[in-house]
Amino acid sequence: MTMYHDYAGVIHIHSTYSDGLKKIPDIIQAANEAGCNYMILSDHDTLKGLSKEGWYNNTILLVGEEITIGEDEGHYLAMGFESEIAPHNRPQETIDEVKKQGGIGFIAHPYNKSYFDDFNITSVKWNDWNVIGFNGIEIWNYSHDWIDNFTPLNFLIGLSWPDNFIDGPLSKTLKKWDELLRYQKIIGIGSVDAHGYFYSYKKMFETLHTHLLLEKTLTFQSAFFKKDKSLVYEALKKGNCYLSYDYLANAAGFMYSAKNMQKEVIMGDELNIRTGVVLTISTPEPALLKVIKDGQIIAEKNNTKLLVKKINEPGAYRAEVYLKAFRGFNLKYRPWIFSNPIYIY
Ligand SMILES: [Zn+2]
Ligand SMILES: [Zn+2]
């Protein structure tokens, strides 16, 4: 099998260009210290940081925009384009504009936790699912996961032990992802949505990463910034990536691949079923491994680093991994890795 290089980074970050606490140099330093290979800044309705793009030690800084839809009817997390896109337009117009400029777009925090959903207290959720042409959705938004568990009584716990408030992707979001995957390719990403308030950028950058799998290596050199930038965006666009809650354990080394008689591919890729396909999940730590298709678990194995499953029908097959770890005082299987699907046709 082709060798892939695993680069972990953070997506969806706010600076003082919108409602974040710190300026770009401080934030990029935090990303350096947290060991992130890339960081995608996305301030609300502005592309101001774009001129700051580049390599900063071992972190490549890329700049996108979190575009407000209508009067706050959703947020579209877009990147890989050069001229700022105006907010407050219809969702389809916004998606089309990103596409026209050759960018990539993700529906940000599509849902809230049910309690907040009912009262619409915290976050903006996505309202229009009739849209087409977006690249993907945020499967797991770390800040929303954290904040949505706050009540007036528990906020000190939440600030002191944020991990106690982390649940993983919302089941509604995963359900929607599986629904969408029946008809099209939809990339799943993990995002931190970091603002720096009450939770330092550095600490948050050590939590939820989106790992990119590249066939080529990044150069880490300013002279080749443009080439490296396109490699990062290419991997995101193809879905050659997985998200993982690395606070529990570093997921680097995780692989999800599929093989037929002719070739072997990885997450985000397509493969022909004709001669039969074998899916393989491998993890760096023993865990609970699952293969999901159409919202159903079609294979599951406990306390293992390897799951192999032969399949006979087309569809989008994705992998989930749960790691036995403490959440507060409870030892249980916690959401750890969510892989992009392999598309079998
Ligand atoms: Zn948002
Ligand atoms: Zn945001």
UniProtKB/TrEMBL annotation:
Output the Pfam families linked to this UniProt entry: PHP (PF02811)
Gene Ontology MF annotations:
5'-3' DNA exonuclease activity; 5'-3' RNA exonuclease activity
Its domain of life?
Bacteria
Tell me the InterPro entries matching this sequence.
Answer: PHP_dom, PHP_domain, Pol/His_phosphatase_N, Pol/histidinol_Pase-like
In this protein, which residues make up the domain named Polymerase/histidinol phosphatase N-terminal?
9-71
Under the heading PANTHER family, the entry gives: EXONUCLEASE, POLYMERASE_HISTIDINOL PHOSPHATASE N-TERMINAL DOMAIN-CONTAINING PROTEIN
Which protein, by its recorded name, is this? Polymerase/histidinol phosphatase N-terminal domain-containing protein
Q: Which organism is it from?
A: Iocasia fonsfrigidae
